Amino acid sequence: MAKETSFTDLVNDLSGQTIQLCYHCHKCTAGCPSAFAMEYGPDRILRLIQLGQRERLLSSRDPWLCFSCEMCGAYCPNDIDINEVMIALKEIAGEEGYRVEDCQQLREILADYLLRRPEAVVDERLCEGVGRLNNLSRTISASHNITGDDNSTRLIWSQNLEHIPPGLDSKRGAETVYFVGCVASFFPRSYGVPQAFVSVLEAGGVDFTTLGGKEWCCGYPLLSMGRLDEAKTLIQHNVAQVKKLGASRVTFACPSCYHMWKFIYPDVLGEELDLEVLHATELLAELIERGDIKLGSMDLRVTYHDPCDLGRKSGVFDAPRQVLRSIPGVTFVELSSSGQISECCGGGGNLESFDPDVLFEVSGRRVDRACEIEAEVITSACQQCERTLTSAVRRHEKARQARMRVMDVTELVWKAIGEAGNE
Amino acid sequence: MTAKESSGNGNVGAVLVVGAGIGGIQASLDLAEAGLKVYLLDKSPAIGGTMAQLDKTFPTNDCSMCILSPKLVECGRHLNIEVMTYAELESVEGEPGNFVARVRQKPRYVVVDECTGCGDCAEVCPIVCSDQFNVGLSERRAAYKLYPQAIPNAYVIEKRGVAPCRDACPTGQRAQGYIALIREGRYADAYRTIKEDNPFPAVCGRVCNHVCETACSRGRVDEPISIMRLKRFVADWAFEHPEEVAEAFKSKVEVEAVKPTGKKVAIVGSGPAGLTVAQDLKLEGHDVTVFEALPVAGGMMRVGIPEYRLPADVVQREIDEIVNLGVELKLNTRVDDVTALKEEYDAVFVGIGAHEDVQLSIPGIDLPQMLSANDFLREVNVGYSPALMGKKVVVLGGGDVAMDAACTALRIGTMQADEQGGAPPEVRVAYRRTEAEMPAQETEYRQAMEDGVVFDWLVSPMEVAADEEGNVCGLTCCHMELGEPDESGRRRPVPVKGSEFMMEADVIVSAIGARPNLACVPESVARTPNGRQIAVDPDTLMTSVEGVFAGGDAVTGMAFVVDAIGAGHKAARAMDAYLRGEPMPGPEPKLPVAELSDEEIAARQAAGEIVEVSRVCTLVEVAAGERVHSLCEVSGLVSEEEAIAEARRCLQCGVCSECNQCVYACQKHCIDHTMQEETVELNVGAVILVPGLETMPGDVRPELGYGRCANVVTSIEFERMLSASGPWGGVVQRPSDGKHPRKVAFIQCVGSRDITCAMRPERSHGYCSSVCCMYATKEAIIAKEHDSDIESAIFYIDVRSFGKGFERYIERAEQDYGVRYVRSLVSMVTEVPETGNLRLKYATPDGGNVEEEFDLVVLSVGIRPAQDTRELAERLGAALNEYGFAESATLQPTRMVRPDGSAVDGIFVAGAFSEPKDIPETVIEASCAAARVSALLADARGTLTRERVWPEERDVSAEPPRVGVFICHCGINIGSVVDVPEVVEYARNLPDVAYAEQNLYTCSQDTQQTIRERIEEHGLNRVVVASCTPRTHEPLFQETIRAAGLNPHLFQMANIREQDSWVHRDDPQVATEKAKELMAMAVAKAAQLCPLEQGVSEVNHHALVIGGGLAGMTAALAIADQGFSVALIEREPELGGNLRHIYVPLPGGGDPQELLRRTIEAVSANPRVTVLTGAQVVDMGGYVGQYRTTIQLTDGQQEEVEHGVVIVATGAQEIEPEEYLYGQDPRVITQRELEEQITNHESRITDYKSVVMIQCVGSRDDTHPYCSRVCCTEAIKNALAIKECSPATDVYILYRDIRTFGFKERYYRQAREKGVVFLQWDKDERPVVRGEDDHLRVDVTIQPEGEQITLDADLVVLSAGIEPNADIVTLAQVAKVPLSEDGFFLEAHVKLRPLDFAADGVYLCGIAHSPRFLEETIAQAYGAAVHAVSLLAKDELDATSIVACVDPLLCTACGLCVDVCPYGARVLEPGAPYAEVIEVLCQGCGACVVACPNKASQQKGFGVGQIYQMIEAMAVTSE
């Protein structure tokens, strides 16, 4: 076997990592939530890259099973961010022709790879998964959202608000733009989050608006599948829209949108946004600190699940906790793995599209953790976490019996404001 | 303290060693033995360093303390080592050979030379601190000894500074101290502490303004401590328990017999100031008379403060205590002229208070119902009350006096109404500003409000209105408003025009201030600028008239009781000095205040040490409606439970708070709280920095749970948990619940080999800490030995067992102790909430992961230099590497380097400060540094050392035994359990006892004098001391009797402490009986003791070094540099050894061939070195100091060399591989051969497309079951060299574990960066090399996945290990030195004597010891050289006196003794009738005595007769 140095160099170039620094302590694999479903596991993938096993890697599902939770990078004593490596591999796959119209083409490419490995067969699950992702990518470019719904109906969730805040849709001159995100806009089960958040913003006297139907997908799903190049138009569009309204800050209840805006957008655009980028929990903490909203008492045992994109990847740990602790009557308990070491809920990456079974396994473990500390409510600050965990609770017998609830921090705060009104 | 002596060319024969861990101790002993004076410095209060904290040591499982302790004692007792503990090096200036070092000596508060280590101070100390020696797992007192075996055996008191409460108090009340005593339920002791500063605790416990509480740090957490109420609790308790108080004060009476001075002092005024002066001066022995104008004493305390706040009897009882000291109190005696008292008295104190009311200047103030507050209160307090029933009373003013007057008026009137059946009075307070500006204390104001006093704000009186009978009938007032601030900062009240109104009033009390009445103070006494008070000197309180002092309100105007007491103390100090004619005190030094920082408070809160709770001592008061009907005290008692709970809230800001309990307890009087930090200058020729290490904090990797999960501990914590002297006496238990853990996990590389250390980015920890794999293994083994149910797992990256005997140790751990090694780091540790167990997530070989539960997790934390160490190094101009370790010069171990890269002379670095390392490597480096110093200061050797001179020994052979017995109380250690007088009486009656006495501390310096005197007085010829352990104290007593002319072996010791009073603490009677038995045995043996002679032998000052490789050449040069001649023997025709085959330097390292050339040149040029090549040792005879060695030259001729010492440096060889086609296919070569190619045939390298290196060839296998230490680094070095000259060449290294320990990890990282591919294989699945035409093919099964791949290779390089030379066995026989299991030479002790053989005078270095790197070999060579020199520097050697001897009549020449003797001291010449002892070689181990079947071999000083006598004595006593 002759090593192909160029493959290592290629991956290093694309990912910005130095993968050969790995000395195989296996810590990344030990912490990886989807390692159980992988063929090789994270640190072995690095070895295969180093050994030039390009086709073997490209015919494996492993890179696509990455949740992008960055747990591996948080641990790595050699500071290798394997999430970036996984994205790079997906990017290479894209270059290889994985971004194809139908699965048959993909099967042919894979079969070609496998000619050199007679013992292997084409992994149908890979073809199907990639096929679904290809569809997703097409949907995004066609409809500018992840569901394919009519993008002008983005504010549909506001219809059943008792009171629709004035200026909700594209108010010029508003100080703050609330970037709602696709999941909250189009998944009915997540409507509660934007509903609660805009109500809180109004109660707190924030001068805000949304981009309404002019909001486009933030680009996060494309980043995760190694197609950031396709996201550039979206990014430019979104930033231009916000600037057009003359706002000075953007806020998000979705940590993935937030992460994109805060860290990826400036990178892609090659310049600072010149906007204040705030997550909802940061904004809420500010409102509470200033006394702009008043919270009533709720006798609840509450825990908080750190979304990967908000916590580990964006460094926001304190704000949500500050918010929860300031609700009178709430007993706040930490999950045994929280903060920097919070494990993924299962909703990360594009696993929901690629392989929901893996997602179910991982989200169940998170509910186990919540059960052992006898939490009545699991809060998160991400509608994707909320969706994932809600369905995990439904499948989790103990949690179901304990009538455990899953809420977004914004929803709990809105409830607490309601309690204050009742007092 | 500066020693100025030096040698001819300016070199000073003294050395400063910084850091007294094992490295510093070793360097000091080496230097002192080599004739240099040593100052051994350590920042901690005892020497011993990290090694003292360790439980056992690997790979022998020796008890760390057991092997360290003798070194500690040796260091502590060495005549030429001055141990300076609790001291830090500030700076070093000067030239190599002549430096001035500035050392900061921190105050220990215990006189170290006087302290006997009895521990009485710690026994009484109320301050509880976390014990850092036990890494915070247990607690100790503020007075403490670092650890039981500490040297110096002296206590230390931890003090941060003055607590804020004490700092704020005018009397300097040690509040934190008495609060701690309350917490312990020691109220009488607390009372004594309070009385140190305050003669009026019951008063101040009631009426103080408690500025202490304002200053209290606890207020920053929740609420300040209720200090005032705690004081009252103690004072009231003391009143109820006079006997306990008397008991607590007893020791004071015994100690302080006051000598009368004959000086007379007059005090005018019996207020708090005057009486404080009276007390203080009386206690100093002066005659004191107090003059008081009123019929009662106490001043304002008695007549100014109403009864309901401060009952008269409370004041009186504290006054009585002062009067009862013998102070004369003259009541009703008004002094007209205070200066006139000077005629009769030597000094006068004026404490007349401020009793005169300030008068309003409005019309009508002289009406009869117009009262002034002080007059009013005074009248009431001495028993005269005006009729106030039903009256309308208006009080003017807003201060405390106004509140007192209002509430008193209300009570008087109400009581009259109760008695006479009328209406209570109406009382109003009129104040010209608002509530916010009122100066009254919050409590007083609140109580007045509750009592029903009505307040009128912004009201000012204008005129008192009278009725026609001339009685007050009202008060004309006007409203005010607040204007601009005045000089007091408060807004000035301004009348509102036209707002006049009439306030109804029958009685008006004016309370707008008071001033001193200075009628009795003549004009000759200067006044303050405003003319209202007496002016005094601020430091002495002396007035303008000499000998007349003043204080209290008379000087300050109205103030608080504590202010007056403070002034009283200050005046008394000055007056005492004045009366004694001593210099007057200057300004009081401002001591550092122990302010807690916000970070500290936050950290203590985070650690759960501080939990927010509000005050426990809430104010209890008589109900408002009830209390106005009498003058009974309003505020209620604090309960004992409340007081203790409140005291627990104290944060102990100052740590030691000078409660003085230790001062009272120390019978040696060696506690000195006035000690201050001082700077000492030392003149030294060189400095060695061996400051040691600190362990990485456990939370350096947060995901591993330290700090988050209670049962995650660091390895150093676990080490203490295992130690018998640790927090739990060696019982392994969990911190959370004390349960015995069954499953223990060790996680390696915590803070090592980690460039991120996520949360602490200040420094990369990319290096390997070198020791963790081994200590984790050791801890796992020891844990199993403690509790056989424990199962351990070690999670690791690479097992780095690279040292001598390490590989076998790991194997034992795995096979004999079931330790499970798991090759995966743990990603995350989480706690199972219910059980406190820990879930560890780790990777499985298939690329997945699992979770496993453990009971306890130990983090193998790495090591680094402490922050203060790095700062010190930077101050001294040392270069630090990127990890913060000290750099040393390339291939010149211990030579310090400046940041510009230049090497420094005169200052050396050694130990873990220059790279993480194990104990033996530290000891080696310390000796290496000592060798360099010894060479630098060779000409100053012996200029500053001292030698003890002894008087001529008295011949006692003709005298019958006259035993003197000295029995020690050891403070209360022995005396409180054993009835010492009874034992003395018993001893006196034992046969042969001529004298017996008891001593408080037999080991103290004054007792040594006593013992010498008693020997003389009573003609004693044997001495027995019954005290503690001979281990530490026998040499001291032996020296004492030697100084009195007795042979030191006429001494016997009985241990009645460790073996008696400590173990039978609960049964004094049994302990006393046992003490008698031990006594009888000791006396019986003593009577049998004979003088033993000290053998001496001459020393030949010439050295022999065997082996002309790097080790031998370096050692020879080092000896020569230190001034001695050497013969260097090399069996090959040329010098150089293995170094001749090493070509490739490490990246940035020195060129090996250059080193070879340089060293050979230096050897050839050195006139003190004689080189014999082609020469072999064939015979070696003689003994230490006198060897005779026969050498055979190539031509067959023999030569004989006489020498005093010998260094064995014969090297080792590369293993010749038998596998992997070596020798069959020319494309398979060894690393050594590769180096030659790289250096001489670079072009060939660039032709290789692919090079595969295979590790562990001939190492770690069945024939060589050890690791060759260097091969991983060598392979990486060569791989880097290939990459350097041919980047396109693929290099694969097939390894089992990469063992690039210490900073060598850098090269491993560099190699990976450069693209060298590392593939791991398993012992059971070795790679296979196949030779094919085009290529070599290497099949390897990669771990952990077990996947087999095949690599094409143009070249296969085998990393062949190192094995002993074939002729090592012969040489070992000739030199009579032992070999290890692996066939290398075996040193005397693997940890502490790595360079010595067990036999004196024979040393070893180089890879004949074990495989090692060049710089390690160099360090060893230097180290061996200084050991040799410490012997060569002596003219004669003292042999131990306790040696074996042979009775020729009993000896059957069986030779058993010869076989068992490890030192070659027993000989049986062929045909000789009996075996003999070579006394200079005998170490007195006793092995031959035990082996001898005929009892012909005996140990001197432990003869069979002596032992029988002891047994007999015990048998007699027992009957």
Would you give an account of this structure?
The complex is a heterodimer of chains A (423) and B (1519). Chain A starts with a helix and ends with a helix. A 4-stranded parallel β-sheet of chain A has the order 2-1-3-4, sandwiched between helices. In chain A, strands 6-5-7-8 form a 4-stranded parallel β-sheet, with helices on both faces. Chain A has helices at residues 5-15, 27-31, 42-50, 54-58, 71-75, 82-98, 103-114, 124-143, 182-186, 192-203, 220-224, 228-245, 255-269, 280-290, 318-325, 351-354, 356-372, 383-395, 397-401, 409-422, and strands at residues 176-179, 208-210, 249-252, 276-279, 300-305, 330-333, 377-380, 405-408. Chain A contains 20 helices and 8 strands. With 1519 residues, chain B is of the alpha/beta class. The longest helix of chain B has 21 residues, at 400-420. The two termini of chain B are 59 Å apart. In chain B, 55% of the residues are buried.
Fraction in beta strands of chain B: 15-25%
Q: What integer is the average pLDDT of chain A? A: 93
Q: Which descriptor suits the 3D outline of chain B?
A: elongated
From the alpha carbons, calculate the radius of gyration of chain B and give it in angstroms. Answer: 41 Å
Span between termini of chain B: 59 Å
Arithmetic mean pLDDT of chain B? 92
Q: Structural class of the secondary structure composition of chain B?
A: alpha/beta
Give unreliable regions of chain A as ranges: none
Helical segment count of chain B: 43
Q: Major sheet of chain A: size, sense and barrel closure?
A: 4 strands, parallel
Number of helices of chain A: 20
Oligomer: heterodimer
The H/E string of chain A reads HHHHHHHHEHHEHHEHEHEHEHHEHHEH
Structural class of chain A: alpha/beta
The two chains with the largest interface, and their residue counts, are:
A-B, 46 and 50 residues
In spatial order, strands of the major sheet of chain A run 2-1-3-4
Strand order of the largest sheet of chain B: 5-2-1-29-41-40
Percent range for β-strand residues of chain A: 5-15%
End-to-end distance of chain A, in Å? 75 Å
